[in-house]
Specification:
There is one protein chain. The chain has one domain (3-52). The protein has helices at 3-12, 15-24, 37-52. The two termini are 25 Å apart. It has three helices and no strands. It is elongated and about 35 Å long. With 58 residues, the chain is mainly α. Helix 2 packs across helix 3. The longest helix is centred in the C-terminal third of the chain and has 16 residues, at 37-52. Residues 4-47 form the Transposase IS4 N-terminal domain. Pfam families: Nterm_IS4 (PF13006). InterPro entries: Transposases_IS4_N. It comes from Streptomyces edwardsiae. This is Transposase domain-containing protein.
Length: 58
């Protein structure tokens, strides 16, 4: 995972906001896992960010 993209995501979307969204959609994990729902959301966002972010100069 790109650390810059992850940092941008955690600043734009604080953990509390992610937890609220996960809870609102009813997708909270039923038991404690190695990869909590919040981490999955950040990893998915990071993958999207790194593949859709245009880093070329304009």
């Amino acid at each position: 995972m790109d650390q810059i993209a992850l940092g941008v995501l955690t600043e734009a979307f604080p953990p509390e906001l992610i937890d609220e969204a996960v809870e609102a959609t009813g997708r909270r994990e039923a038991r404690r896992r190695r990869l909590p729902a919040r981490v999955v959301v950040y990893a998915t966002g990071c993958c999207w960010y790194t593949t859709h972010y245009d880093n070329s100069p304009t």
